[in-house]
Design goal:
By secondary structure, the chain is α/β, with parallel strands linked by helices. The protein contains 15 helices and 13 strands. The strands form 2 sheets. It has a 7-stranded parallel sheet, with helices on both faces. Strand 1, helix 1 and strand 2 (about 50-55) form a beta-alpha-beta unit. The longest helix has 18 residues, at about 80-95. The chain starts with 12 loop residues before the first strand and ends with a helix. Residues about 1-10 have low confidence and may be disordered.
């Protein structure tokens, strides 16, 4: 007769999670990675005998739950050097002090020396494929620490199948060691009442029709090609609004606007608070997402959930996010994008079809499921799945 399940499981499991990439301040650092960490922490399931210790920076915007103890460091880990010091020197000591059964780094790098089994989340390998988009020191640390984490972590979390395959090919990690936990979409992203959207347009001084891009202003977002396509688009009454904070080498984008003579057609909205993003999506005629490379492409799903037509690059993980509900183009062909923009702007029936298809595609992505799947990764890393099966 098999022993009862309780005989195989430890009475208390304390899982430590590095959440230092959470940002409590408005700005571009509250973009995709922040949102992913925040939502996964919020949606981790409550499991008998399991507690979570969340390590974060001061004012990280996360207070935790009864089963989550939050420890804020006095180190200024919003600065890269301090964060590296914490990851590599402080965390291994804290793991022993707090008697962790497992550590989970939610930001590429686990400590080189640790007495605990480890899980690491790798969002993408943009620092490998587009090294010119990163400061040299950041790129070197990411490359070294990620490679080390791939060798030593028990489980690796990717946020799309595209990212999973990328990690496999670049670092030679066996596919069976890589788990995919895709992002979800908040219920706040949904079609809003026309009167509310019209009032928002008036408040922001927006025209009835405009194109929207949501994302940090940096080279791999491929905004320069979007600007080239806009310059070719023979609809000068349809402006482009860029929502997002200033990232690495953002000055090149401003220079490109001036060079192409688009100052009157391109508007920089800057960083937008999460609570306002659904209004921006609802107000836009279409979201344009031309990124060359993304671990997932969360704005695509958010826009689709709002019923906003999406035109996205046919690159990396973006078709996984958009499915059949989005339109796609070659991210190296400005003319192809210009043609897609013209089609979407001119064809009211197509826009209606895309608005109808969007919410159904977005409904495939759930933060609740992401939390459950992350918990299952912990089970696999600790060997609990095998014990349950036995």
């Amino acid at each position: 007769m098999a022993a009862p399940l309780s005989a195989h499981l430890p009475r208390h499991l304390n899982i430590g999670i590095n959440a230092h990439l959470l940002s409590g301040e408005a700005g571009y650092r509250r973009a995709g990675i922040h949102q992913y960490i925040y939502q996964v922490l919020q949606h981790l399931p409550v499991v008998d005998g399991r507690a979570y210790t969340i390590y974060a920076r001061q004012r990280a915007g996360w207070d935790g739950r009864p089963d989550q103890r939050v420890i804020a460091t006095p180190l200024p880990t919003e600065r890269r050097a301090a964060r590296i010091l914490w990851e590599q020197a402080v965390w291994p000591w804290a793991a022993q002090r707090d008697r962790l059964a497992l550590i989970h780094s939610m930001g590429f790098a686990m400590p080189h020396f640790t007495s605990c089994p480890a899980v690491v989340t790798i969002y993408d390998l943009s620092f490998v494929h587009y090294p010119e988009s990163f400061p040299a020191l950041q790129r070197r640390y990411l490359a070294t620490a990620t490679a080390d984490s791939c060798r030593r972590a028990r489980r690796i979390v990717a946020i799309s199948e595209s990212a999973r395959q990328d990690i496999h090919h670049v670092y030679g990690v066996a596919l069976e060691r890589i788990d995919v936990v895709v992002p979800g979409v908040s219920a706040a992203y949904r079609p809003l009442a026309p009167d509310e959207v019209a009032a928002f347009r008036r408040q922001q001084g927006l025209p009835e029709r405009f194109l929207l891009h949501v994302g940090t202003l940096q080279p791999r977002k491929n905004i320069s090609l979007l600007l080239d396509a806009l310059a070719q688009l023979d609809q000068p009454d349809v402006p482009l609004v860029l929502v997002g904070g200033k990232g690495w080498l953002y000055e090149d984008i401003f220079d490109r606007v001036l060079t192409l003579g688009l100052r009157e057609r391109v508007h920089f909205a800057g960083y937008v608070d999460d609570a306002d993003l659904p209004l921006w999506y609802n107000a836009a005629t279409a979201l344009i997402f031309p990124s060359l490379y993304e671990g997932f492409g969360l704005p695509i799903v958010e826009a689709l959930a709002c019923g906003t037509p999406v035109v996205a690059a046919n690159a990396s993980s973006l078709p996984e996010a958009g499915g059949a509900a989005a339109r796609y183009f070659d991210p190296y062909d400005a003319s192809a994008l210009a043609s897609e923009l013209a089609i979407v702007l001119d064809d009211a029936e197509l826009r209606a079809d895309l608005r109808q298809a969007g919410p159904a595609q977005a409904a495939r992505f759930s933060w609740t499921r992401a939390g459950l799947e992350t918990s299952a990764v912990y089970d696999r890393a600790l060997g609990l799945s095998e014990r349950r099966a036995a």
